[in-house]
Amino acid sequence: MMEKACTTVLVGKNASIDGSTMVARNDDTFLPIAPHRFYMHPAESDVNETITSSQNGFTAKLPNNGYRHSAVPNINPAKDGIYDESGFNEKNVAMSATESVYGNPKSLAYDPLIPGGLAEDSMPTMVLPYIDSAKDGVSYLGKLIAKYGSPEDNGVIFSDKNDVWYMEIVTGHHWVAQRIPDDAYAVAANQVAIQQIDFNDPDNFMWSEGIQEFVETNHLNPDKTGWNFRHIFGTSTEKDRHYNTPRVWFGQHYLNPEIEQDPQSSELPFICHTEHKISVEDVGYVLSSHYNETPYDPFGHADDKDRLKFRPISMNRTQNSHVLQIRNNVPDELSAIFWLNFGVPAFSPYVPFYNNATDTDPSYSNTSETMNLDDAYWMYRALSSVVEGHYSKFIQEDIDYLTASQEQLRARVAEIDKKAADYSDDNLTEYLTDANHETVAAMKKRTMTLFYHLLTEGLTLSKLTFNMDKNL
């Protein structure tokens, strides 16, 4: 199922509360129900495999050797495409793909999209198992785009323990990438985000071969000075101002509440700085938000013209939300944690999975096509539906559940980190795999307890009721 409505948050290591790099994204689809699963793909050696996309026919030979890596794909790749979407490889390199963006018709006229090129559905499979760093990921994908072309415009995220890179592919063959400064964060939402490019700074910017000449030859730069990638290749439309820019505004409003900005501005900054340190919970709050505590909250009490004015960040068609955290205050073997939210993010928790594992719990890896409360995907989405169905009655209990879950899961990570010191390299992976399963079991118990309680409470809230005097 193609993703065309995602939101991205990126955090440099010195901007985070514990020195981690963090890259995060809501994986949104066209439909409210598009079952996904979370699994660990084993390392491969001496294989002879070709990938063929069921979506656009893209075909390519895969390298013979690839790293173990996690992925969150559709459950029916033959029908809906692979869409591995996001994960870490065993070298603690993260990739999340993609944030759909849209190039403007002027630039696409001179370098059209390639219908059979490398698209989102095949991209992580083609890249993540074969890269050794975030910057290597940009370079590797850039070479693939040069070879195969792109059939769509995409933002792609790469990170390792030191670097966070954001890459935007905006025509059939042209792209740029920017390294997020260590002390900065960034938010992107379905609109070309990167701004000024410094072609004299290859440590912090990368770009497709010939992009400067392409822009100059075709007279694409509208600015009298500078080289603003967003202005040259991006859009600024009425749809952007209702669908895209408000989400960026809210992320910046939450992380920098002291700054007054227009939620419909096309000039919101890409690179941002804040005086306080950013936590996993902060990133999760942004991705689970719906303009909370503003007039634009669809659950709020403002007039419809404000409540329904902007597209929220958390949606019922968010199939998963993830924060890929790479920590620098623990050994590399414990460093990468995949915080995965399989429900509607507004109502569901981010569950931590250590990347140094050989598989995922069956409740995550074997998602059914139809409702099955044994599956994490369906369990969390069922909870989300019940809470939203009686929002005013149930939201506080859901908030209390999320708060308790955050406390439990943070303590869980600390406990696993501590116990991991007792294991040698040979059996640490096995311990972390088992620990992930135990985390899943604990969260299932907590979640189902709330779910059954709310279902029971819901039975008393029917409008098909009538009270008469007991003496009649």
Largest sheet: 6 strands, antiparallel
Give a count of the beta strands, DSSP E runs of length 2 or more: 16
Low-confidence stretches: none
The arrangement of helices and strands along the chain is: EEEEEEHEEHHHEEEEEHHHHHEHEEHHHH
Q: What is the number of helices?
A: 14
Structural class: alpha+beta
**Beta-strand level of the residues, as a percent range?**
15-25%
Q: What is the mean predicted local confidence, pLDDT?
A: 96
Helix fraction, binned, reads 25-40%
Write out the strand line-up for the largest beta sheet, numbering strands in chain order.
12-1-2-14-15-16
The best one-word shape is globular
Distance between the termini: 58 Å
What integer value in Å does the Rg equal?
22 Å
Q: Which features characterize this protein?
A:
472 residues; alpha+beta; 6-stranded antiparallel sheet
What does the model show?
The chain is α+β, with helices and mostly antiparallel strands and 472 residues long. It contains 14 helices and 16 strands. It has helices at 77-80, 105-110, 123-127, 134-148, 211-217, 229-233, 238-255, 280-287, 304-307, 332-335, 362-365, 376-389, 391-420, 425-458; strands at residues 7-11, 21-28, 39-41, 50-52, 59-61, 69-71, 86-88, 94-100, 154-159, 164-169, 175-179, 185-188, 205-207, 318-326, 336-341, 351-354. The protein has a six-stranded antiparallel β-sheet with strand order 12-1-2-14-15-16. The longest helix has 34 residues, at 425-458. It is globular, with a radius of gyration of 22 Å. 48% of the residues are buried. The mean pLDDT is 96.
